[in-house]
Specification:
Number of strands: 5
Number of helices: 0
Shape: elongated
Distance between the termini: 37 Å
Strand content: over 45%
Strand order of the largest sheet: 3-4-5
Number of domains: 1
Length: 62
């Protein structure tokens, strides 16, 4: 059985508590150590080659 992890990034309106925007990260099912800085999401992701991992960055949609 193959394990699948799916991530969704949501911007939350602090006044209403509702999600104002949703970003699907299903293209990166095994992302690790996610961090956001200056509108960019950084994370470690396996490359599939020799079990190596690489740092990826994705601009967050406003």
């Amino acid at each position: 059985m193959k394990k699948t992890l799916l991530y969704t990034l949501k911007r939350i309106d602090l006044q209403t508590g509702t999600a104002t925007s949703v970003m699907d990260l299903s293209g990166y099912p095994f992302a690790q150590k996610m961090r956001i800085h200056n509108g960019v999401l950084y994370f470690i992701y396996p490359t599939g080659i020799n079990k190596r991992k690489a740092l990826y960055q994705v601009r967050i949609e406003e």
